[in-house]
Amino acid sequence: xxxxxxxxxxxxxxxxxxxxxxxxxxxxxxxxxxxxxxxxxxxxxxxxxxxxxxxxxxxxxxxxxxxxxxxxxxxxxxxxxxxxxxxxxxxxxxxxxxxxxxxxxxxxxxxxxxxxxxxxxxxxxxxxxxxxxxxxxxxxxxxxxxxxxxxxxxxxxxxxxxxxxxxxxxxxxxxxxxxxxxxxxxxxxxxxxxxxxxxxxxxxxxxxxxxxxxxxxxxxxxxxxxxxxxxxxxxxxxxxxxxxxxxxxxxxxxxxxxxxxxxxxxxxxxxxxxxxxxxxxxxxxxxxxxxxxxxxxxxxxxxxxxxxxxxxxxxxxxxxxxxxxxxxxxxxxxxxxxxxxxxxxxxxxxxxxxxxxxxxxxxxxxxxxxxxxxxxxxxxxxxxxxxxxxxxxxxxxxxxxxxxxxxxxxxxxxxxxxxxxxxxxxxxxxxxxxxxxxxxxxxxxxxxxxxxxxxxxxxxxxxxxxxxxxxxxxxxxxxxx
Length: 481
Fold this sequence. Notes:
The chain is mainly beta and 481 residues long. It has 4 helices and 27 strands.
């Protein structure tokens, strides 16, 4: 009955939506700008943006497309809106499941856009839980509930024996021991997070390299201050939270919606992917990948991509505009990046140095963009080159969507883990042949040298003694965010 009502409502509103869209600027899409210095077009404004929302489609007997030499498999299924994952010591994977937000709609166009956008989302209700995926050793995973009754969990981090979860309203902590199948009790609240209105509800999170701090993303409460600046207090920020005490401070500001973080190996630099503002046309404003500088201001709401002023914000603040940092790398406009993870050599030579980005996909362009996982190569610790498709095929030829990537995690064995909140699946993409790196080869040789020789029986009366195989995978990998 509910599905019938929703369908009827969408059909009823379609003519009104079409009318509003027809009054907007109808410029042809231009090539999407990638890279550190994108050429930005002039802003285009109208009552509503052009909206094309791919509707859900079934995979059937097909799978997402991955590069030659890699295999993709579904290791978690029938999930309840999987968002982010973390690989735990021993190879278990935790999945945060949920959907939040309670922002009221301000104008009729918000209601129209909300109905249209909902057509491209899963109909599954928010899980508000963590699910554990445990490898069986044969390529399959055992699936069980680790913790329930959370509040739209999103960000995950592990520091020693502390498992941190960023709910939409609070940072909480569970005790954790390697191999644990379920939480031992209710979580402890470490810090309250801004949750009033919650236009952007996701709370992305990563632990600092030294484990002292947690960085949490707090998205804005509007597209471009439609609710007034009072609603934006403590929003559009990255918080640095003391992992022990919960004390926090703004680490960086002016990031409209920071949706995931990663710590760069070797430099310990904090990186983020950010969803930028809407309603300036199909090719503005680029979503981006960037380093997050302590004390840095990244423009929102006053400007975008450095000093490009957004005239919709009144009164303006020229001092803020002058201070705005231009991001490091344009992902192009409206791709909606929701996941980022640094690669490792075990993934394979072609993808050894760079980041994977999960692009959830657009809703406000005539021609959809995103809906894939891309790899951005790095040189000298910085992005260098155009995005390369790593997982694609989520869009069908007739414009529907089989899935929508969210979080991306790289496992120590070189597998790339992707959460898909439309299919409600966790995908695992792995090299067909294990990649032998210098570090792995040295570790295996060292372990072989330290393996004691099998003891021969002292007499014929003794039973045969088989030499024990050395486990070369008992080293605890670092937690992946």
